[in-house]
Specification:
The protein has a domain of 163 residues: Thiamin diphosphate (ThDP)-binding fold, Pyr/PP domains (Rossmann fold). Helix content is 41%, strand content 14%. It has a seven-stranded mixed β-sheet, sandwiched between helices. Helix 2 packs across helix 9 and helix 5 crosses helix 6.
């Protein structure tokens, strides 16, 4: 291609998408193929579209979400591991006009913080919770989590998880849906365009529910962890489709809004 044609094409190029205003111009440090970056961006887009950047407060624990305060141009509080739902509850009750969200991994939400997670949902706290499920502890070394699948190999279950030794995977969304407190519980994924669009709608709905004072919303999102799964990014996506979704099916679980 000649330089002249290249020059014309560059002049004719139109920017169709950019970084959300609610996110900082900072490069993610997530591992290659990890879905946290996609999820973070969707949350940023939702905050922009709803015009709530100045009114939003995020909470995130130790774990892969530990640097949320670097990615987002909003106020972010970093609670102790497992205490995110409790801290988000306290912030919302102290600042009821703010939009407060919790961003938690499965080790945090379903293990270390199970107590806080269950009771915040049962009380119907008017917060929005993003529950990122990659079926293990991501940042600390790939250990077994309550969400780890039967037969899945982790650094603490090298022979695969066995039900007789470690119990069964906990389906937090289905369990919390049995409570009277939650308004909206859904499970999403972000491995292709249709799922990304569906996850975006769920995220916006979770924020809108809070703004409209409808109560507790939980958006679970299945996320790839290629490094700890020992797979490349494409294989990790296939694992979500063929294995993870058989245990954790996608879709809305309750919608009382």
């Amino acid at each position: 291609m000649s330089d002249k044609v290249t020059s014309v094409k560059k002049k004719d190029m139109t920017k169709v998408v950019g970084r959300p205003d609610s996110m900082n111009d900072t490069q993610f440090s997530y591992c290659p193929g990890c879905h946290h970056g996609i999820i973070n961006r969707l949350i940023g887009e939702a905050i922009d579209e709803l015009g709530i950047q100045e009114e939003t407060i995020g909470t995130a624990p130790v774990g892969c979400s530990v640097f949320l305060y670097k990615w987002f141009d909003i106020d972010v509080v970093q609670p102790p591991h497992g205490r995110v739902s409790a801290v988000a509850t306290g912030i919302k009750r102290a600042k009821p006009k703010k939009t407060v969200f919790a961003y938690q991994g499965d080790g945090d939400f379903a293990s270390i913080g199970t107590n806080n997670s269950v009771h915040a949902a049962n009380r119907g706290e008017n917060i929005t919770v993003f529950f990122i499920n990659n079926t293990l502890y991501g940042m600390t070394g790939g250990e077994m989590a309550p969400t780890t699948l039967i037969g899945q190999k982790t650094t603490t279950t090298p022979g695969g998880r066995k039900a007789k030794d470690f119990g069964y995977p906990i389906k937090m969304s289905e369990m919390l849906a049995r409570l009277d407190g939650p308004t909206y519980i859904t499970r999403q994924a972000v491995y292709d365009v249709p799922r990304i669009k569906s996850a975006k709608r769920a995220i916006v709905k979770g924020f809108k529910n809070q703004i409209e004072e409808k109560g507790y919303s939980l958006i679970e999102i299945l996320s790839a962890c290629p490094i700890n799964w020992g797979l490349d990014p494409v294989e990790a996506v296939e694992r979500i489709k063929s294995e993870v979704e058989t245990v954790y099916p996608l879709g809305d679980i309750i919608d009382r809004g």
